[in-house]
Write a structure and sequence with these properties.
The protein is α/β, with parallel strands linked by helices and 333 residues long. The protein has 2 domains: 136 residues, NAD(P)-binding Rossmann-like Domain (Rossmann fold, 3-Layer(aba) Sandwich), CATH 3.40.50.720; 182 residues, Rossmann fold. Helices cover 39% and strands 16% of the residues. GO terms for molecular function: NAD binding; oxidoreductase activity, acting on the CH-OH group of donors, NAD or NADP as acceptor.
Amino acid sequence: MRPNVVLIGSMYAAEAEELLEQHADVRRVDEQDRQAVLAALADAHGLVARYPAPVDRELLAAAPHLLAVLSSGRGVDNIDIEAASEAGVVVANNPGLGGKPVSEHALGLLLMATRGLTAVNRLGLEAAWDARLTTHRVELTGKVLGIVGLGNVGGWMARRAHGGFLMRVLAYDPYVSAEKMAEVGAIKVERLEDLLAQADFVTAHPELNDETEQMFNRTTFAQMKPGAYFMNTSRGRVVDTGALVEAVRSGHLAGAALDVYEDEPLAKDSPLLELDNVVLSAHIADFTVETKRALALSAANQLLTALNGKQPSAALNPEVWARVAERRQAMLG
């Protein structure tokens, strides 16, 4: 029996969808049509949910035959893993692919923010030309970069900043040892407030969870060095947007650069759009040609692995695999 696979939104590469179609009956549904999503899942065995499409308890309850859920990328804050585990559904993501592109993008944002590279687009050529000698610009070489969250992306950020720009790199991550940090050119700082007080630039790369949600708020922005810059390419909800706007408007922070937001897409009336010293991009840090293809193929291959009776390599709830395998055998043989 061929399994049924539902795609909520298209995958990042057509090649991955074609791969799934070779081995399964594939149905595509629009994330915005909730009823169509629920109806499509009635006989689905596999699901790929394009971020930020929610995979919640209601959805899982509508999918009695579901065996595996794949995230479109690395992040899974849109998937209720606890509910999936209760339902006997394995959840997997696609780790290890975003470090290089996201760190490149973060450094690009930092250069744009610190060197006024959006001036022509923002002000027009004539006004930007007139302001070129009075605009506030700073160099990176020899300055202090503070990295919050030294996982894959943070590690690549440290390598590039230390090796490429000769920056002094400090890192805060309670779950990474000083020895591991030293391997990528970073110095471990035990307390977040100590890093914030020293860094000329702070870049956020933590996982989004209960511990990190809105970890950058009025208190933490006040602890940052006056005149520092803040960047976020992780998840929007690690930042209290109102507090960031206040910190920039007051002049306490010299500027900021963001690729992710508390609510996406960013509202047309967001106060962030009113700030000349804030650089914004549209949640595209890891959406390079190379990484989109790698993410999509990773998701497709892991889903097929699960549907063929083997545990996917990046399962986030591997403790349920025995139940999944038993259910799969009963349904697909």
